[in-house]
Amino acid sequence: MSGSGTEAPDVKPGRLEKGAYQNVFDDIAPPLSAREALIEAARCHFCYDAPCVEACPTGIDIPSFIGKIRTGNLKGSAIDILSANIFGGTCARVCPVEELCEEACVRTAGENKPVKIGMLQRHAVDALMAAGPQPFTRGPESGRTVAVVGAGPAGLACAHRLAMLGQKVDVYEARSRSGGLNEHGIAAYKVPDAFAQREVAWLMGIGGIAIHHNKALGRDVTLAELRKRYPAVFLGVGLQSTQKLGLADEALDGVEDAVAYIERLRQAKDLGTLPVGRRVVVIGGGNTAIDIAIQSKRLGAEDVTIAYRRGPSQMGATDHEQHLAQIEGVRIRHWVATTRLIGWKGRVKEIELAYTRLDEAGKLVLTEARTTLLADTVFKAIGQTLVADPFNADAREPLAVKNGKLVVNDERETSLAGVYAGGDCTATGTDLTVRAVEDGKRAAIAIDRRLRA
Questions:
Q1: Are 253 and 348 in contact (CB under 8 A)?
Q2: Residues 6 or more apart in contact with residue 248 via CB below 8 angstroms
């Protein structure tokens, strides 16, 4: 199928001057200075029934850690944070605080200017990490070893808490590097300077945790084998497959998985070697859509458009993220759905969009009106799905799956006794790093209780 013009798709590496790549993904939110942190901490009312704590999925005692910053006790502040959330450094950088703790801050209601909880959290945790090894130690040896599948936030949070409780842990990770989405899937400008790897190395300092890289579930090890070898198993494998558009010509060159491209970007030794389209269209409305759009723009794409089928209030990306994209020069088109991909010599060249609306019943419908956009690259950022096959290979008892997620109880135990799960592969809440950490922590406590019963 050919497009409506003769201009060839324009995709090439090195769209920026060579020296420009050095700072292209500098920290998007520079840290607070010591003086700024003290001033900001002084704004906290230290509420007795602090709503910000209720809004934090990991239950960090926010008034306590801010109070310690105010008195100059940064170590104590960081311990407050990390005792609840061992990934407090990453979460301070990537959490949608504007929809969690900071939205609940009483100053939001009164002044529309919440205390900068996320920035204060980063200030304390960064100071502790820079000072040396972590303050947590292993508990008395239990003599048992637990298997964890996945070295992302859920898996490593589980492993760390188990180590604190005196259990040994074997972690099986499919990739060659640990960190999960923190290392492979979050925008580079949110976690620059190899922070994700530094955080993992710091966390591993507790000891008692062995990570076996390049060991994929279903390929190198099966759940049935792990259940035979270990008294308990935790699954923190995330979501392994990207949703399909369901369109003809989806296999055209230039139609790419946004998460896969972000992973290539995060692992690239030379950003100048990454192919970048001159005109980029991103399909989707979540944080991944925002991340890939901004990174494409920073890598030299001239025109970047996000196409989303509903309105701004329905987007998975927060208002803050949407505003950030627009500041970066990304155009967001709402109420449009992709209906056709148009190719040129085997490569995508245009994308056809239908205007959408809500009918009287509130159902999204496509109108007859159409428009097209030139697109050298089209990124799919419409969500990821669970691939259940690796879990159930050689299994006499398959894991229960509902609505594309593993079914777990409040302790994060699956339908199989002794098998726990957490993070994006489960339906415990919004797919956020902070929720994955809470899942891992909660499962570890339940596993330890089970093994000591």
A1: yes
A2: 340, 341
DSSP code, position 361? T
Kindly state the tokens that stand for 288. 């991944």
- The helix (H) or strand (E) run that includes residue 171 is strand 168-172
Q: Quick check: is 407 in a domain?
A: yes
Residue 136 lies in a domain: no
Q: Is 161 in a helix, a strand, or coil?
A: helix
Domain boundary among 131, 161, 188: 131
Residues 202, 260 within the same domain: no
Q: Find, among 332, 339, 346, the residue nearest to 372 by Cα.
A: 339
pLDDT value of residue 242: 79
Query: Is 226 in the same domain as 250?
Result: no
Mark whether 351 and 421 lie in a shared domain: no
Could you report the per-residue pLDDT of 194-246, keeping only the tens digit for each?
A: 999 999 999 999 999 999 999 999 889 999 999 999 999 999 998 877 788 99
Please check whether residues 406 and 438 belong to one and the same domain. Answer: yes
* List of residues 6+ apart from 69 with CB closer than 8 A: 37, 38, 41, 77, 120, 123, 124
Task: Work out the average pLDDT over 79-95.
Answer: 97
Is-contact 97 118, C-beta < 8 A? yes
Spatial CA neighbour of 167 closest among 132, 133, 209: 209
User: The domain containing residue 127 runs over which residues?
Assistant: 34-131
Tens-digit pLDDT profile for residues 5-45: 557 789 999 999 988 998 899 888 889 999 999 999 999 99
Q: For residue 280, which of 191, 385, 381 has the smallest C-alpha distance?
A: 381
Q: Which helix (H) or strand (E) holds 372?
A: strand 364-374
Phi-psi region of 209 (alpha: psi -120 to 50; beta: other; left: phi over 0): beta
Least confident among 103-117, 338-352, 389-403:
389-403
Closest among 117, 106, 95, 94 to 40, alpha carbons compared? 117
User: What's the pLDDT tens digit per position in 163-173?
Assistant: 999 999 999 99
pLDDT at 356 over 70: yes
Judge contact between 136 and 206, C-beta under 8 A. yes
Residues 120 and 159 in one domain: no
Per the domain annotation, does 409 fall within a domain?
A: yes
What CATH number does the domain containing 355 carry?
3.50.50.60
Give the chain's domain count: 3
> What are residue 398's DSSP bridge partners?
none
pTM of structure: 0.93
pLDDT at 44 (0 to 100): 96
* Mean pLDDT, the chain, whole residue set: 93
Q: Do residues 367 and 332 share a domain?
A: yes
What is the C-alpha to C-alpha distance for residues 425 and 73, in angstroms, rounded to an integer? 38
Q: Is the pLDDT of residue 4 over 70?
A: no
